[in-house]
Design brief:
Elements (H helix, E strand, L loop, with lengths): L1 H24 L2 H15 L2 H13 L1 H8 L2 H11 L3 H20 L6 H30 L24 H17 L1 H5 L3 H26 L1 H26 L6 H20 L6 H20 L5 H15 L1
């Protein structure tokens, strides 16, 4: 917590020191009006970013108050395994924001945004499924040049069940980044502020309610609830502020395929040893086949995939 406070104080002091110099360099009313517009646009995003940080860190101290240090240790160590999906979402966000702001005035922008959401959900679903299926094998692989160390100590393996929830939560965090593009384009950043603050509030409330009932799974569920709420709220607001006809049929096909794979994984007990690995591979094949036979890919995309495969083979 004190590291977080130190970072906030450092950023705030830098901002305060730069304000006098910025004001003295302004020339004329036009620049001052521009500064005012920039502040109105940008200032709401700052507490919104703090709210997102709160979602990431508040669950641990709440869990410490409601349980014990050992539980928090298991939770925190396995929560970090969600970094695989978090890194993908972070990299995507840094590329996505300048991309949609640059193309916001083109005629086919909205159709492009819809296609981006479809592809992001597809790729994200594949990553979530692969990591969820094979995480128990991944954490047992020794890290090179570390004297046999692994990603987490075997004492923490009991908490691996929360990893799929965290991965899926970050998938919704990435979806939210796509859905809020219209709010930034239309300069409605106050909606971003109130949505993220509400998401942080839901995170705190669900942590308080679910941790006593479900332990570490309650903390993971609270993270999912917060990011799902934020994404859903952006979708509702966006329908008014910046309407986009998303490819709901294709998104539904991805959701059905992922749900079918998840049900097989949770309901059917896997065999032991090598059989478990093969069972996980079979679930991946089920996911891929469900997507293919559901008609997810249109004719143009299939031609592009085949052309890319032929080029790679050549």
């Amino acid at each position: 917590v004190f590291i977080f406070v130190a970072g906030v104080l450092s950023s705030a002091s830098s901002t305060l020191l730069l304000i006098p110099d910025t004001i003295t360099r302004l020339r004329g009313g036009a620049e001052r009006r521009l500064l005012r517009e920039l502040l109105i646009y940008g200032l709401p995003t700052m507490p919104g970013a703090v709210a997102i940080m709160l979602i990431e860190i508040i669950d641990k101290p709440i869990m410490l108050k409601l349980t014990d240090a050992a539980t928090v240790g298991v939770y925190g160590m396995n929560y970090k395994l969600g970094i695989f999906m978090m890194l993908i979402v972070t990299v995507f966000r840094y590329a996505w924001q300048p991309f949609y702001l640059q193309l916001s005035q083109k005629d086919d922008t909205r159709a492009l945004f819809a296609r981006v959401l479809t592809y992001f959900v597809l790729i994200g679903a594949v990553i979530v499924l692969v990591l969820s299926l094979f995480m128990q094998d991944i954490v047992r692989i020794p890290i090179p040049l570390t004297d046999g160390r692994r990603l987490i100590h075997p004492d923490y393996y009991a908490g691996l069940g929360i990893v799929p929830i965290i991965l899926f939560s970050y998938l919704w965090a990435g979806i939210a980044q796509i859905l809020n593009a219209g709010l930034y384009i239309q300069k409605k950043t106050l909606y971003v502020l109130w949505t993220t603050l509400a998401g942080a509030g839901i995170n705190v409330l669900t942590n308080l309610l679910l941790i006593p009932l479900w332990g570490i799974y309650g903390g993971a569920a609270a993270t999912f609830a917060a990011y799902f709420f934020i994404a859903a709220t952006y979708w509702v607001i966006g329908r008014t502020v910046y309407p986009i006809q998303y490819e709901y049929g294709r998104l539904l096909r991805i959701a059905v395929a992922l749900s079918a794979a998840a049900l097989c994984w949770y309901i059917i007990p896997p065999p032991d040893g090598l059989g478990q690995f093969l069972w996980n591979v079979a679930i991946l094949l089920l996911f891929a086949m469900t997507l293919w036979f559901s008609g997810l890919f249109n004719a143009g995309e299939i031609r592009e995939l085949r052309a890319a495969f032929r080029r790679r083979r050549t």
